[in-house]
């Protein structure tokens, strides 16, 4: 009972408050050039460590580079420039095969 309630509480697809928290956190992470998934610590959870070991090397290297850049920006009390945030997001969309935001059509 408690575990199903906790899953509902933390699932952004089911709970409006969780969705708002996810959105706010994602916006803060974007200022540093991070993704939400970059917050998972492989030293804390062995499943995360195994998942990272199964990923292609270039994906893990990109994740490590994002983390290093975020630490550097945080130490300097700076944010990633706005134009780089947009360029990185568009490059990610293109790499995943998704259309850019301005080319999407709603059926």
From TrEMBL:
Localization, per the record, is:
Mitochondrion inner membrane
Keywords (A to Z) from UniProt = Electron transport, Membrane, Mitochondrion, Mitochondrion inner membrane, Respiratory chain, Transport
Which InterPro entries does the entry mention?
QCR7, QCR7_sf
Superkingdom as given in the UniProt entry: Eukaryota
* Biological processes, Gene Ontology terms: mitochondrial electron transport, ubiquinol to cytochrome c
Q: Mind naming one GO cellular-component term on file for this protein?
A: mitochondrial inner membrane
Instruction: Determine if Membrane is one of this entry's keywords.
Output: yes
Query: Function of this protein?
Result: Component of the ubiquinol-cytochrome c oxidoreductase, a multisubunit transmembrane complex that is part of the mitochondrial electron transport chain which drives oxidative phosphorylation.
Q: Which named protein is this?
A: Cytochrome b-c1 complex subunit 7
- Say which species the protein is native to: Musa balbisiana
């Amino acid at each position: 009972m408690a575990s199903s309630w906790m899953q509902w509480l933390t699932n952004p697809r089911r709970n409006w408050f969780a969705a708002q928290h996810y959105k706010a956190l994602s916006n803060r992470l974007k200022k540093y050039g991070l993704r939400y998934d970059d917050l998972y610590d492989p030293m804390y959870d062995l499943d995360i460590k195994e998942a990272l070991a199964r990923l292609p090397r270039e994906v893990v290297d990109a994740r490590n580079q994002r983390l290093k850049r975020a630490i550097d920006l945080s130490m300097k009390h700076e944010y990633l420039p706005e134009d780089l945030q947009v360029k990185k997001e568009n490059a990610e969309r293109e790499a995943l095969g998704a259309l850019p935001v301005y080319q999407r059509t709603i059926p």
